[in-house]
Specification:
2 domains; binds nicotinamide-adenine-dinucleotide; 6-stranded parallel beta sheet; single chain
């Protein structure tokens, strides 16, 4: 395909504007149509980035000439739109976490498989040189334990959908999914989880039904064990995120978002390649233009596997027992 890729959007909120900014800079992209149920939002985005405005995705799929669609929706809003798009042969970019309910994700995955469209999930960490260097470095090494945390505040403020469990799925599912996905990318599949959680600090925040603290044990297929903790109580700042791997040879590898350290420092050396990797948007558009799916580091199936871990963790906390992570194939 040498023509620009004709792109549409379902959802034109926060992250959609980030993708639109990137795509607007790319010569091989034409922003053709934008859709949001919030008319003012879609009109504002159209004014900045162009394209035809819609408030109903079906009308957009009927009326606009598209090759690909970005789904930048809150977790609760993923539904039939992705299925309809896949059935029409449109390539899908879906923001993380791909769904709130596993059953919806399985139906979408089936449509993606049946149609053969290219899919890409918004785990942009997988495209970083550091992440890929760590993945390669650890590939032939035993990992004794993985310990991760993501502690922060409340994205969007107290009246946002993010604070409502039935809309976001909570901090682990919505935000720390990046850490869970990175752990899966580096260390392989998680087969069982057990989550406990609490709400002790954000009791003074309105509209909050998500726990402000979550602790999850992780059992890996490889036999490795681990845990991840989240907090959304640090509403005045001071949070952070890091994942530690205890590695054969008796040392720790610490991975923060774009940075890696080994402790003790002389225990091993890890080379991080120079050079700018492809961004996630460049990878998705490039895969469509060339047909080279290897550019994409997280397909819909892979993204659903990460969502399945946090969905199982939420079930585990509701049922007060360890839960096996459903197999997604
Ligand atoms: N990869 C990342 O680093 C990253 C960063 C930010 C957000 N995200 C993810 O992106 C998703 C969206 O987050 P956001 O911050 O952009 O949310 P947002 O609330 O700012 O935007 C979501 C938009 O979707 C619209 N919408 C809801 N239902 C719709 C429907 N049926 N049809 C059309 N439009 C609909 C809303 O009106 C809203 O404008 C979340 O899952 C979030 O986790 C990912």
């Amino acid at each position: 395909m040498s023509q620009p890729v004709k792109v549409g959007f379902v959802g034109t909120g926060g992250i959609a504007n980030g993708h639109l900014r990137n795509l607007a800079e790319m010569k091989n992209v034409h922003i053709a149509a934008l859709c949001d149920v919030d008319e003012a939002r879609v009109n504002a985005a159209v004014e900045t980035y162009g394209g035809q405005p819609y408030t109903d995705y079906r009308e957009m799929f009927d009326g606009a000439d598209l090759d690909a669609v970005y789904f930048c929706l809150p977790p609760f809003a993923h539904s039939d739109a992705e299925i309809v798009a896949a059935e029409r042969g449109l390539h899908l970019f879906v923001q993380k976490p791909v769904v709130l309910e596993l059953e919806t994700g399985i139906r979408i995955l089936e449509a993606v498989k049946q149609s053969g469209v290219i899919s890409c999930v918004g785990y942009q960490g997988r495209y970083m040189n550091v992440a890929n260097a760590v993945r390669e470095f650890l590939a032939d090494k035993a990992i004794g334990m993985i310990a991760s945390h993501r502690w922060g505040g409340v994205p969007g403020g107290p009246s946002h959908w993010w604070c409502v469990m039935e809309k976001s799925g909570g901090m682990l599912h919505e935000q720390a999914t990046h850490q869970l996905d990175m752990i899966r990318y580096i260390a392989g599949e998680i087969v069982e989880v057990y989550k406990i959680d609490a709400m002790k600090v954000n009791v003074d925040q309105e509209n909050h039904t998500i726990p402000d603290a979550e602790v999850v044990t992780l059992q890996f297929e490889s036999g490795t064990v681990g845990y991840i903790s989240t907090s959304s109580a640090l509403v005045n700042g001071g949070g952070g995120t890091r994942t530690d791997f205890i590695v054969e040879g008796h040392y720790t590898l610490q991975l923060a978002w774009g940075d890696v350290r080994i402790l003790p420092e002389d225990a091993a050396t890890i080379e991080i390649p120079d050079g700018e990797p492809l961004s996630i948007d460049e990878a998705f558009i490039g895969a469509i233009q060339t047909g080279d799916r290897s550019l994409i580091r997280s397909s819909y199936a892979d993204g659903l596997k990460s969502a399945a871990v946090s969905i199982a963790a939420n079930q585990s906390s509701r049922e007060h027992r360890p839960v096996r992570v459903p197999l997604i194939s």
